[in-house]
Write a structure and sequence with these properties.
about 210 residues, alpha+beta, two-stranded antiparallel sheet, about 15% strand
Amino acid sequence: MVKMKKLLSNKKGYALLAAIFAINIFAILAFKAATMWETALQRDLEQELLFRARQYVTAIELYKKKNANVNPKSLDELFEKKFLRKRYKDPMTGEDTWNIVMREGRAGKKGLIVVPEEMMTEYIGKGIVVGVCSTSHEEGFLEYRKKKKYFEWAVYLGEKVDKDMPELKYVGEPDYEDSSEKEKAKEEGRNDGGRGNDDGRGKGRGGERE
């Protein structure tokens, strides 16, 4: 009788251990599945971001062809004049507000500037609208033209997607400007080859980049 009780007790203990083990395995598999799903969703959103940004670029191109090579003055103009089917939202923020990529038009300067959409009227005389980029500072799984953060993924007329992203000048947003300066300093450090600039000769050659 005693042996029977001991045997039953052992069986219950083994059953409990097996149940705990199974629950742990299920939890691990569920966590991995959730992580994989989130990663897949994020990657889909990144592809959607590039797709939507290119819809704006295509609309800008069509606008120029129909308006004697003149660039639009706003994203709303593209929609209102039927060059854009709708105001696409930025999938990384859920908002229909974008940063505007503009090509500087002042004498001697042909660089790209990035301006918050609500401020772009102040810069129309300084450049032309050529594209858009996200306002999100999150880092992506995808690296687009050697850039990780979404607000650095400029999509614009004439871009060369097989080359590194050219230097972007951010205006109107201090945190964007800080990020731009940090990236520039990092690039200068790489150009120095780690020599530093104690002797005054180690300054970066950031001005020589595309």
